[in-house]
Amino acid sequence: MTMHIVTLPGDGVGPDVVHEGIKVLDAIAEAFGHRFSIDERPVGGAAIDAVGTPLPESSLAACREADAVLLGAIGGPKWADPTAAIRPEQGLLALREGLGLYANLRPVRLSQALVSSSPLRPERIAGTDLLVVRELTGGIYFGERREAGDDGVAYDTMRYTAREIERIAHIAFRIAGERRGLVTSIDKANVLASSRLWRRTVTRVAAGYPGVRLEHLLVDAAAMHLLRRAPDFDVMLTANMFGDILSDEASMLAGSLGMLPSASLGDGGCGVYEPVHGSAPDIAGRGIANPIGTILSVALLLRHSLDLPDEADAVERAVDRVLGEGHRTPDLAGPSAPTVGTGEMGDRIAAAVRASVEVTE
């Protein structure tokens, strides 16, 4: 059976890192005897330049027919005017809406080899293995808003329904039941009405998962504890904006934003998988971007959309092995430490995938 994957390389370093993700998929196909078909489509600023829209209907249609979508990055200074009628990020929002994606999973697992790469003390972060479950289609990013007029007044509305909260909470509790059994729900219930609804709803959902423990934290306290005691967290359940901020903060636990993968899921099988980092146009095409966030996103793709957990494990083991051998892209290395480029890192991880399967056989 051939599994169909659409790639949306996008802008900046997106094409660079997606190329390495495909390289690792090829290694998985070779090692496990699978067949993947790859269909590349435009999105973001590249699509605006090509056809005048950030998400062409042909790209969305291809994604709807795919088993999974691998996305690079979107945006850059060329399209950075926030007042422009057409902007690259609109393509990402339209993709999420078009595929019905409402749950964003952002795992943060610290490789033992990178403990010294984090700006935090090793004893604070050793053993970190957490998952941010971020609600993706509600909250302040999608509520009613008003741009400032002559009166100098602007506002954004943080709006949630109980149904939106319930469906993301169920995902968090199901995943926690397969991990260490702890959900930390993060809100601002001491100030925000939407957060009080969030807290009540999550508490109600928790009653259906007696094997999972629930704790509540205010978002400011969560930001502090994430740096103070990161290994204590298991699944962090958050609203849209809070999850956006906290997951970027958590990237420092892993040593670099370039290390973090993500999955955006809905009720169907097809998800969108992408690194957490941005398009980094200043290093695009220079062969120095870290492809590991994209490669680990491939592992999530294999696990969640293609139901290939052994293959996902093989990718994650390969990343750990290559890092354990001391190979580093520039974002992970010290000022005078030797580094490898984007392509070499992808080559080494792909080789490690093949080697790990050969060893187990």
Straight-line distance between termini: 22 Å
Please give the order of strands in the largest beta sheet. 2-1-3-12-11-4-5-10-8-9
So, CATH architecture of the largest domain?
3-Layer(aba) Sandwich
**SSE order, as H and E?**
EHEHHEHEHEEEHEHEHEHEEHHH
Overview of the molecule:
The strands form two sheets. A ten-stranded mixed beta sheet has the order 2-1-3-12-11-4-5-10-8-9, with helices on both faces. Strands 6-7 form a two-stranded antiparallel ribbon. The mean pLDDT is 93. Helix 1 packs parallel to helix 12, helix 6 packs across helix 7 and helix 10 (292-304) runs antiparallel to helix 11. By secondary structure, the chain is an alpha/beta fold. The chain has two domains: 1-100 and 270-361, Isopropylmalate Dehydrogenase (3-Layer(aba) Sandwich), CATH 3.40.718; 119-253, Isopropylmalate Dehydrogenase (3-Layer(aba) Sandwich). It has helices spanning 14-32, 44-51, 57-65, 88-99, 122-125, 162-178, 193-206, 219-228, 240-250, 292-304, 309-324, 342-360; strands spanning 2-10, 35-40, 68-73, 101-109, 129-135, 145-146, 155-156, 182-187, 213-218, 235-238, 261-266, 272-275. The protein is built from twelve helices and twelve strands. Helix 1 (14-32) links the parallel strand 1 (2-10) and strand 2 (35-40). The longest helix has 19 residues, at 14-32. The protein is globular, with a radius of gyration of 20 Å.
